[in-house]
Amino acid sequence: MVRPGGRSARVQASVHTAVRELAAEVGRDALTVPMIAQRAGVTPSTIYRRWGDLQELLSDVAVERLRPDTAPRDHGALPADLTAWAEQFLDEMSSASGRAYIRDALLGDPDGGNAGQCSAYAAEQIDVILNRATERGEETPGVETVMDRVVSPLMYRILFRPDGLDAAYARGLVTGLLDPTGRWPGKAA
Amino acid sequence: MVRPGGRSARVQASVHTAVRELAAEVGRDALTVPMIAQRAGVTPSTIYRRWGDLQELLSDVAVERLRPDTAPRDHGALPADLTAWAEQFLDEMSSASGRAYIRDALLGDPDGGNAGQCSAYAAEQIDVILNRATERGEETPGVETVMDRVVSPLMYRILFRPDGLDAAYARGLVTGLLDPTGRWPGKAA
DNA sequence: ACGCTAGACGCAATGAATTTGCTTTAAAGT
DNA sequence: ACTTTAAAGCAAATTCATTGCGTCTAGCGT
To answer: In chain A, what are the domains?
Structure first.
């Protein structure tokens, strides 16, 4: 159990900032536990005891950075809200650092709790958007549907096929979900 | 560059089998490079020089195991083909070992080549199914659409939300893609 | 307010893994 | 067959991960 305050909290904070600083300075792949420990002013054994290994520590830091810091902007209509959110999501997640954070969050994650947290963050944001739309009287799909039709394809491509991924693709996913005039998008896509 | 034949090929093969054997014997998490080297009859430095680190080696082996060994079965109609394939895909990938392989493939993958290969395997299988359907005269979505609507949601949930994932969910994805009678599935889902 | 207790940290020693310079082997090209 | 050169073997040196033990302090009860 991690104690909420006092020295434990200071250690946790200084280790986390050490990770972020060093990741920016020497690159994420060059990080080592002793290096982080020295920057944070603690001994390596403290980190090993508390986090187990480097990957779990990185996973911890990654989840913190993947937490959205602000509610999604209100554009006055569901399509605009969802499109803007999807574009921003793609933009943040598909960057080199974003992908590294996602991978770290997935990686050092014995029980799957950290990855589930990431997914919960996205679901929360979408829920806010859908609730606003419902209050306006708009008809909306369920959160799970948006997760399946928008978030999943974005994340899949970010992880497995990072090439040729742009805002137009994100917009197309939202459009396909909200305006199903044609049955399927063109096969050429 | 890896030489295609002779000693290099023998080393590669013996290292790969050593990884598989030892993973089965002592568990994937207990693997170490020196252990693998000894079993394979090579020196650790050989592995480090060729693969860089344990994760890249595991990623290599994982991709090999994720390659489908057989063409998808022909059930005579697109919905049955896709449903059966999706159920089998989910079954294989959501098992403990399947998830471990996916994570390994994603992890030790600096350039994204291994992950792209996994995605290509799925796309290949789907392409076979769609081509058969087209030859039968059935109307089919494009490969990319199936990837977005079926493969992506399955993989996203396997990675981020492994709970409450069953064959019914996989069937629902295929149904939603092929029979869009209702606009969206129920919000309760 | 004061001491008690348990969890967390520092220190140091131990053992294992990684890295590296140099030599030797054996594919691939001529 | 000879030359070239990438890859493997070997061994030393470095770095990292792990663990036992003593100390400190946050949280708690009195």
So the answer is: 7-52 (1.10.10.60), 66-178 (1.10.357.10)
